[in-house]
Structures are given as structure tokens and as C-alpha cells.
Specification:
This protein has helices at residues 6-19, 24-36, 40-53, 58-70. The relative contact order is 0.15. By secondary structure, it is mainly alpha-helical.
């Protein structure tokens, strides 16, 4: 992530996903950027996509669970 610049971070992840739409790192990075920007709906969507490629653990899993608990 680019030091709190969530929009710029998302743009970077989007450029990666244009080349590889199943990049776990880009999907997860985008989910975390949305989460940190307070966009739970988009964060949830990208956590789901990342989780479908590789089961989430650690901080990412906790972030995703907090979204699910609050919705």
C-alpha cells in the first residue's frame, strides 16, 4: 500500500489485475486498501476473490471477519 493513498494503491492493483486477474497479492492488496479506506462493500468483494485463490489467514482474515460481523 502506498502510505495511506488508497486511491493510488487501488490504481496500482488494478493495473496488475489487468495483466493477471487472479493475482492473489493484487486482490488482497486491493481488499486491504478498500478496508482501510472504510469501503466495506468493496473490501468484502475483494477479500472473497482473494480467498477463492488462497485461504486468507492472519490480519487479512481478521479484517474480513470484522466486515462480515458488522454486516
Amino acid at each position: 500500500r502506498l502510505n495511506g493513498n488508497y486511491s493510488q494503491s487501488i490504481d496500482v492493483y488494478d493495473s496488475i489485475l489487468k495483466r493477471d486477474d487472479e493475482s492473489f497479492e493484487a486482490l488482497l492488496g486491493k481488499a486491504i486498501a478498500y478496508f482501510e479506506a472504510g469501503d466495506a462493500q468493496n473490501a468484502d468483494s475483494f477479500f472473497k476473490k482473494a480467498n477463492s485463490i488462497k485461504i486468507l489467514d492472519g490480519d487479512a482474515k481478521e479484517m474480513w471477519q470484522s466486515i462480515q460481523e458488522n454486516n
